[in-house]
Amino acid sequence: MTKPTVTTATLRRIEAWVAEWNQKTPREKAQATENALRNARAISEDASPELVLDSMLSTPKGVL
After folding, report:
1. Which residues of 34-57 are buried (b: 16+ CB within 10 A; e: fewer)?
2. Mean pLDDT of 12-17
3. How far apart are CA 44 and CA 40, in angstroms?
4. What's the confidence (pLDDT) of residue 27?
5. In terms of Cα–Cα distance, which of 64, 20, 33 is closest to 53?
6. CB < 8 Å & 24+ apart, contacts of 54-60
7. Rg from Cα positions in the chain
8. What is the DSSP string of the chain?
9. What is the rounded (10 degree) CA torsion for 58, 49, 12, 25?
10. Residue pair 59/33 in contact by the 8 Å Cβ criterion
11. What pLDDT score does 7 carry?
12. pTM of the model
């Protein structure tokens, strides 16, 4: 099995997500975490790591 690679574009998306996350209030973070857990349960267990990451980073702004 090959290991997934992380592209520069993916790293930039993660950095942008972290910067946005750091601006959230504790209440917003709690709501985002709840939504993320709900979304994670909806993703198939056999989904590729890339699909899971893309799904997480593509959630509507203000949700995750």
Report:
1. eeeeeeeeeeeeeeeeeeebebbe
2. 89
3. 8
4. 95
5. 64
6. 56/17, 57/13, 57/14, 57/17, 59/35
7. 13
8. -PPP---HHHHHHHHHHHHHHHTS-HHHHHHHHHHHHHHHHHS-TT--HHHHHHHHHTSPTTT-
9. 60
10. no
11. 85
12. 0.53
Largest interatomic CA distance in the chain: 40
Amino acid (one-letter) located at 11: L
Tokens representing 11 are 């790293």
Residue range 15-57, pLDDT digits in tens: 998 999 999 999 999 998 888 777 777 776 667 777 777 777 7
Name the phi and psi angles at 54, rounded to 5: -60, -40
The single residue listed with the structure tokens 């690679």 is 5
Tokens of 58: 């593509």
Backbone angles phi, psi at 60, to 5 degrees: -55, 140
What length does the chain have?
64
